[in-house]
Amino acid sequence: MSSMDLATLGPHERRAFERVKVALRGRFMLEDRSEHPCQVYDMSPGNIALIADRIGEPGEKVIAYLEHVGRIEGVVTRTFEGGFAMTVLASERKREKLSVQLSWLVARQKLGLAEDRRHDRVAPRNPFTSLRMDDGRSYECRIIDLSLSGAGIEIDVRPAIGSQVTLGTMRGTVVRHFEEGIAIEFASLHDQEELDQQFSS
Predict the structure, then answer these.
(1) Which residue of 7, 82, 189, 198 is surrounded by the most CB atoms within 10 Å?
(2) Residue 156 CB neighbours (<10 A)
(3) What is the pLDDT of residues 112-148, one digit of tens each?
(4) Residues 99 and 176 in one domain
């Protein structure tokens, strides 16, 4: 949907937080536990407008998994042609983190960066580790490159973008697929000492 007018979302959904336009892919789960792909049209720490083929009903609980952001819980507030708006149910700390993430995403889009390259990527001394999914499944993988904020790994499986995973002991989100594997963004920045301890032996 390319012509959605933000005014149709209503001022009551935008009054608490400023919405920003960010093109993030992801998936969401409705109360019937069905999962569907989506794309963020705009977002604030308190509200999200999602473009999707399947539309939730007002009042329905939603769990969304968004690239660079991770898991978001909320409630559908209203629908529009080609999607729906939802509130974000989160603690004050989580909202503050979302605000920082959104500021970074907006700055990245303005600079035209394909991905975060603020941190140098290196090949770890021991590239072999495991990737664990939220459901407990674990897969052997090889780290292609590693930075303070994420990693590229060679792996046979392709978890959906937005999936929450653990690389070694480090939590992260799948943000991209490529021919050899996937790219992961860590849930928080790690210092070089942590990376050396995790992937040096």
Answers:
(1) 198
(2) 9
(3) 544 444 445 566 777 889 999 988 999 999 988 787 7
(4) no
